[in-house]
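Worked problem 6 (solution included).
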Amino acid sequence: MTYFQGEPVSKSELYKLNNEPYRLQINDILYIDIKGSNPEIVAMFTSDGENTSSAANKTQNLYFTGYSVDRHGNIRIPYLGDVNVLGYTEKEVREKIEQNLETFFKNPEQLFVNVKLAVINIVVTGEVGSPGSINLMQNQVSIIDAISNAGEITPFGNRENVTIIRKTIDGVKKYTLDYTKIELFNSENFYLQPNDIVYVAPLKQKSWGTGTTGFQSFTTVVTILSFLVSSVLLVKNL
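Solution. The predicted structure is:
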């Protein structure tokens, strides 16, 4: 299977690749870390599971210890209540939480808040080795990351027709990528967004049942023609 054919195209001017910050959506899970000069006050605003002893435990319990964006676009923080974060960037959420916490601290300048996506969930389906939902703890997830973690594209998959389905505030959008071309790396959709669906369409040969390679298709056609010729000759001899 040949991937990334062609040569990279040099650009004469500055090129921004998907440089806009991600804006939070419903069902995203945030990791929020709060530190300050008074640990007792800080502890009031942290969830019960945040102080687990190991990073492995934190990873396994993100669903419970993280802050999930509900269907109204809110997260619930102890003593702060509902905080709306729908459509906000990570930086904007951090600034909003810092502003809400200032009234609880004598020295708000010593307050430190860190906000980031706890996990990026992507669904990969179609002609891949292990279709399903994948959760990656990365700042960015590319289309290559997603397909590699889904067991790669099978021999039945159409590498020229990889579709990204994305639900946005403006509605559902679809983008098609050619996995065989080097231009893939310059696509605005090279990096995926949380909750994207990646669909790898099957080859037409599979839909028709004629094989997945040119040789298999040729063999199938020859077999059919041989059957037809044999049937015609048999009828004539009756």
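Discussion: The chain has a mean pLDDT of 81.
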